[in-house]
Amino acid sequence: xxxxxxxxxxxxxxxxxxxxxxxxxxxxxxxxxxxxxxxxxxxxxxxxxxxxxxxxxxxxxxxxxxxxxxxxxxxxxxxxxxxxxxxxxxxxxxxxxxxxxxxxxxxxxxxxxxxxxxxxxxxxxxxxxxxxxxxxxxxxxxxxxxxxxxxxxxxxxxxxxxxxxxxxxxxxxxxxxxxxx
Length: 181
Known about the structure:
The protein folds into two domains: 6-69, no CATH class; 80-180, no CATH class. 62% of the residues lie in helices and 8% in strands. The chain has five helices and four strands. The chain has a two-stranded antiparallel sheet. The protein has a two-stranded antiparallel ribbon with strand order 3-4. The chain starts with 5 loop residues before the first helix and ends with a strand.
């Protein structure tokens, strides 16, 4: 057996290959491939990029198997489920926050009936989310299902508080520059 770097890893993978066959045709084949380099990435985005590169690399080999429509070649890892979830949740969280801010603006405009108060409510909710994002960064949190739920709850709580303050200002007596609260 040759020795040295990648060749050793290839032989290790060849020794760990598993074949499951029925009626002299391969039904399932897998082998373990060490991804020790994956542990050196510090950013989740790098993990997701490398996972997508692995999917693209393996997809190129799917045409080399003559199994018709039933043949599938795909990479599999325990960590890939987490990375796929993070990739999807990140884009959906940003989209949902933007949609929620638009809904907050329309709801406060309808209920408070003042465009300036509605803009102030949306701006204060947005600034609360920016503040929350800054704390998440300094705490080292990455976006996952729990964090996205908590961000959504924080958005709802900040809307409630901001809308009540704006409504109290609108119904208070006095001038714009001096209200009796």
